[in-house]
Specification:
Layout (H helix, E strand, L loop, with lengths): L1 H9 L6 H32 L3 H4 L3 E3 L2 E3 L1 H7 L1 H12 L4 H18 L3 H19 L6 H41 L1 H17 L4 H7 L4 H21 L1 H15 L5 H6 L5 H17 L19 H16 L7 H28 L13
Antiparallel strand pairs: 1-2
């Protein structure tokens, strides 16, 4: 056992929650952002502004026509796998071999492909790391072992994992349609908390293919956390803190939350309020890329995702058009309500002695 532990250490294989469910999951979200999400945005811009170079076919592969954005979207599997491999600190031959593994896994996983890619890429990466550098013909052995193991795992795991993720996501979306008030609260609070924790809410939403009304509730929860913390901590952090948290991430508050968890009350209660408002009053839906559901106001990706969904629905006839009520709902849920509710709740916490001035001061 001691020898095996030494081997794992030499191969930089660390079996831990941090590496697999924080580092890998966060990296997967970045891979999705740089492929599926960017591709969707490019397609939407091209369609909305009638930009020929973005809407015309640039490649035809196996009878399928691809635009620039379509090519980016098609590469989501390889992008996720390579991102995960980089987070696990894979050597080059293993990292590059994960391109094929990610493509196969995502394709076999269907709509639930991102979850399958997470599991298959992690295991395959660690297998590849074990083999890498152990022979004189590493240039042949490592890619063969990595791609072989990855292809086998993809064929074995991807279909059931993809189906499971799709069923769970469909169940959440069905429940939200059936009970928009209760599920609006639950989805908004849970996904919002996940966004602030050092895990990836975007990757979770993508893995579950969380769209529709449940996706709208997720957007509300993420916005409540980001805008809530940004505004309620403005006195401590100024404009820099407002921008870094409001357009960056509320995860910056995690060290302060560990010291005093009560600073989290304002944004979390705000999400419990805005979630059902989004689902019951404005019927806010995320019909863009599922990864956008877990992004909140980070780079305004959540809002862009909702907008791309509107455009797509309008083009398909599923939506008559984009109304003023749609815009009012999106702006209220994303910015105005969190900016009002969270500071008020936080002020009450301060009056109760639960939160003190300086508790939310960002480090560095």
């Amino acid at each position: 056992m001691a020898a095996f532990k030494q081997f794992l250490k030499r191969k930089n294989i660390e079996i831990s929650v941090k590496r697999y469910l924080i580092d890998a999951l966060g990296a997967m979200a970045q891979g999705l952002f740089c492929s599926l999400l960017i591709g969707t945005i490019i397609n939407t811009i091209g369609t909305l502004f009638h930009i020929g170079v973005l809407t015309s076919t640039v490649a035809t592969i196996a009878g399928t026509d691809y635009t620039v954005g379509g090519l980016a979207t098609a590469m989501s599997g390889p992008a996720m796998a390579v991102a995960i491999g980089r987070a696990l600190q894979c050597p080059p031959l293993v990292l590059f071999s994960l391109i094929s593994v990610g493509f196969a896994t995502n394709a076999l996983g269907g709509a639930g492909g991102p979850l399958a890619v997470l599991f298959v890429a992690i295991v395959t990466a660690e297998i590849g790391k074990m083999v890498a550098g152990e022979t004189r013909i590493d240039i042949l052995v490592t890619p063969l072992a990595t791609i072989g193991a990855g292809a086998a795992l993809a064929a074995w795991w991807a279909p059931p994992l993809g189906a499971l993720a799709l069923k769970v996501g469909s169940l959440i979306m069905w429940a939200t349609e059936l009970q928009p008030f209760l599920m609006g609260i639950l989805v908004s609070v849970i996904v919002g908390i996940a966004l602030t924790l050092p895990i990836s809410s975007a990757a979770i939403c993508a893995a579950l293919n969380l769209t529709g009304l449940a996706g709208g509730a997720a957007v509300a929860g993420c916005c409540a956390q980001m805008i809530g913390f940004a505004v309620q901590s403005f006195k401590e952090n100024g404009i820099g803190g407002l921008i870094s948290q409001g357009l960056g991430t509320s995860m910056l508050q995690m060290p302060n939350i560990v010291k005093n968890p009560r600073i989290w009350i304002g944004p979390t209660l705000a999400s419990a309020i805005t979630g059902p408002i989004a689902t019951c009053i404005f019927r806010l839906k995320m019909n863009g890329a599922a990864v956008s559901s877990g992004m909140g106001t980070c780079g305004l990706v959540g809002q862009i995702g909702v907008f791309t969904g509107w455009v797509s629905d309008a083009a398909s006839g599923a939506k008559a058009g984009i109304t003023a009520f749609d815009w009012i709902g999106l702006i209220l849920i994303s910015f105005i309500l969190p900016a009002i509710l969270s500071p008020i709740i936080n002020k009450l916490c301060m009056k109760a002695g639960w939160v003190k001035a300086g508790d939310q001061k960002l480090q560095g």
